[in-house]
Amino acid sequence: MTTQVQITDEILVEEPLLSARQVTMQFGGLTAVNKVDLDIHPGEIVGLIGPNGAGKTTFFNCLTGMYQPTAGQVLFAGAVLPPQPRKVAVAGVARTFQNIRLFHNMTALENVMVGRYARTKTNAIEAILRLPRHRREEAETREVAQQWLDFVGLGDAAESLSRNMPYGDQRRLEIARALALEPKLLLLDEPTAGMNPQETREAEELITRIRGLGMAVLVIEHDMRFIFSLCDRVACLVRGEVLIDDVPEVVQNDPRVIEAYIGSPVDMPGEQEEAPRPDVSTLAPSKPVLEFPPNAINPIIGHRTKPGGRKDA
Amino acid sequence: MDLLIQQLINGLSLGALYALIAVGYTVVYGIVQLINFAHGEVFMMGAFGSYTTWMLMGSPTNLSIGVALGLVLPAMILGGVLVSVGTALLMERFAYRPLRNAPRLAPLISAIGLSIGLQEAVRLFYGQIPGFPDSRRAIPFPVIEGLTGRSIQVGGVTIQHSAIFTLGALLICAALLWWFVNKTRMGRAMQATSQDADTARLMGINVDKAIATAFAVGAALAAVAGVAHGLRYNNIDFQMGFMAGMKAFTAAVLGGIGNINGAVVGGLVLGIVEAMATTYIPGQFGSSAWKDVWAFAILILVLVFRPQGLLGAKVVDRA
Amino acid sequence: MSTLHEFLSRWAGPARWVGLGGAVLVMVAAFLPWAYLPAALDNVTYYGEPSILQWLGFALGFVTAACLVASPILAAKASPRTRRLLNLNRGATAAATASLVYQAIAAIAVALELGGLITLEPGAWLGVVGAAVAALATRALHAGSDARLRYLPTPAWAQILGIVVVLALVLVAAAYGLGLEDPGAFVAFGTFCGLAAWVLARVGIMGWISAAAAANRSALVLASFVVAFVFPFTQNGSDANMSIAAGVLIFAATAMGLNIVVGLAGLLDLGYIAFLGAGAFTAATLSESAFATLGWHPPFPIVMLIAGCVSALLGLLIGSPTLRVSGDYLAIVTLAFGEIFRITMNNLDGSDGPNITRGSNGIPAIPNLDVFGFNFGESHVIAGFDIGRFANYYWLLLLVLALIIVVFVNLNKSRIGRGWVAIREDERAAEAMGVNVFGLKLLAFAGGAFLAGVAGSVKAHVDVSVTPDQYVFMESAFLVAGIVLGGMGTVGGVLVGAAILKLLPEKLRFFEDYRLLLFGLLLIVMMRFRPEGLLPDQRRQLEFHAEDDELAEEADAQALPDLATAGAALSATKEDRA
Fold it and tell me: Which residue ranges run through the membrane (chain B) (predicted)?
């Protein structure tokens, strides 16, 4: 049933940072994620692809503690991740959201400062009496948050309300907020959804720089060009199971992957004309749908599963 | 044994009253995820509406049982329903609808305002109508021949006619409600709206109307409860909605808020628990002075151990 | 309205002269009698000798006229930069409208108090008519853009001077207002204060003051505290007004604690009064009252601490199970808790339960505080001024209020405050970012309870007796109303809300019966039209107006640190829009 995890030579030596073992998630009678194994090593960029309804987001939620897997476990740095989003974040796994979830009425800087919450310790008494630790940590939080804003290229927008920022900047701000947690692993849920090619290129460059800091990154994406040019390794999830997990070149040419996206070759004609767009729900309301240049369209982008396919819960 | 059965029956009839009110909380919550804090006052308005109807009929007394039960009581119920439904619709239209996209704190605070405002309006102005009794004090509820003060004796157990009325009213209302929600177009529209208002709107459902209907349905049942309350306690007052509303809300949470069957079950269970608590809790804490405390303690316990309620609620948490 | 404005704006030239005429009429009216008998508005019956309230009417007329005259001069003579500092056209419109409201209220008050319109003398009519003419005419003026006085670089001493002047005015106004016995006069004066603030805001002066206040926070705090401290000396030993002031402070302190829970953490607590009650009952049972049921009488500072802890413990007890479930439930559960508290206090009377609170009789005859040899019950003479019992408690309550404000402000500005904002904005995102959502909610809830407990322990001594019926749901609703009216999440808002909600009923005894009805309506209307309150927290304002992008842009422009840039940016955006 499951495909064995293939480990490329260069990272064989290290212990996995995150290791999902036989993770299974059932909702009533529905098995959304079935015995998924996935290892992520320090400093690695791993892509997670799969048609809509394949269980990517459900699996993501199992990793971030939103769901407790019905079976199997997720190990992070050798310990089992607790099924609570906060503890997962504190342990060193930060995430962004598919539909941007910034604190809209806070400035960009304040958003990132919230990301520092778990890394600071001032308690209520110290804050009320403005004791030294409070003052030190406040200054430090501000400084570090500004550094992360600079890192993602939003240094000048620190005082903007996040709700007034352009869409692409909001995505980057969300990444800065996650980075402020100083995680060992960053989970990005469709980081380029709704971005134009220019912004997508910038995102790619940003993620590469994040890896340069020594963090591992797991990316869910529908933009295949983006995934295959960015990732060290790509896992393809179909109907809740890992179909293949290998270097991009192998996954890209695997006939099963193409079939999973497009269906059997007979279905091919005509499919191309249907709007090859990412899931509409990933776009923020009132934002224009973004154009994709014709040459960027990969035939396997964003096609919906055949009728009867599962929906992500 | 007689005592147990007696308390069971007392509890059931009290619970039926709670259940009739609880449906209003649950229907509205199910469709707009709003706790209509002022629903207790809708119930109070229903009771005053039925009393007003009786006054307008010339405060008939000493009637034959047939006239009292066949004419006067139905008219009173109808009058109560009209008043409470009107109140609820106005409330929805002018206080809640403009706040539908506001932060959740806003409608809740509005609801407190409505609750206080309605109580005070009745207290200050109802008695000013010429010929009407002073509404600052409790007003004796009309005597309905064949119901008021009558009871039947089965073995060692006494059953008030008003208790039979309340339970009967609950049965009929529950059946009608079931039919309405499941078998009519509007009922299905309400269900669709409660699942996903935006999609329902895209499907051509008049969401505003569906929501208003939910308020109206809850209000109608609350008016019936208002009459039942009057018959049971023989008087009504402007504050009656406060405690009854809180108990009914507890019942709705107990059954699983958003779940209509749950509201009925929750109401009955709460009534029985209250009746049993005053009988079977030993010592000073078993006195009736503590019964409200036990009811609210149940509310808190349910929220801790089974927040979805006995029958399970709609899952409101949307990721 | 806009069509009216379009129509009128064709007559902008002559309108200035008509408006000026109206304003002059208003000024002249101040020198004529307004009422037939001296019983209304503290006597407004003299020719040529305006009373204070008439001088206030004159002032509004004068400001209208001054704005009308100065506006074209400013436009013609001043540099473009200076011209933009004030918006005199808008000021003229506001002052004329304020005049109309003020004159109308004064006239209505006279008519109500003396019985009918017949009791109005020509001065009142002239004032109303003149103000109406001016208000209508000034609508034709070109409104122009926002005044930019707030961006004017001002030396620190001038800013501090400005703050001191404003606070001194507040003190004078408070002392004068509290001294007014006549309800009509009180309403007219209160209205005038609100209108004056509004006119200043429209001209642009308020913007400068708030900028000065923001730049000199510590000076503002110090000056406000001094003003509040000095207040008893303005009362000539009258304990009646000090008793009202003490009541306002108790209410403000409690509401400020609740504001941490509601305004900062976003948790609607409808049973908050129970925590105040718990503190009061704790202090009462530990007091030296002959009716106290416990035999232990520790010194008051310790009692305060115990009272706070008892309340906080109750807060933990009720909060830890319920704060995990959705916020709506919390509102009802806290309401239920409030009822449980009231019923329990009633039942602990020895027959339905152990005798702790003496049931509905409560604990009377709580002696005055005697801390470190200072007896709060005795009058003291300080610097020649008589300081009575309530003034003593007023100072103590001022300290308690200051303590709660410090807690409020410092928590708000810390990582904890940021966590609360994050929770209000998006609870699940906050959780995913490592914010301890449950812990922070519990902190707000129990911390708020602690502060209420402390306030309650003082209240027990001020009130002399503690009974369960002082701590009913309506009191909780008032507290919420105070916060909603003033502005969620701000210190100034709560103080204003508390002052309005406590002062009005004290001064307007005749409408006491309608008090609750009006509060109910107030809550509904506020939620519908200005949910953020009179003095809103900017972020709260944005939260309540999620679709208002213009408001958000304005907020952005104001957040820019450099004043010059801000001015330029603002003028740019305004120009674009115009």
Answer: 12-35, 63-90, 163-181, 210-228, 249-273, 293-313
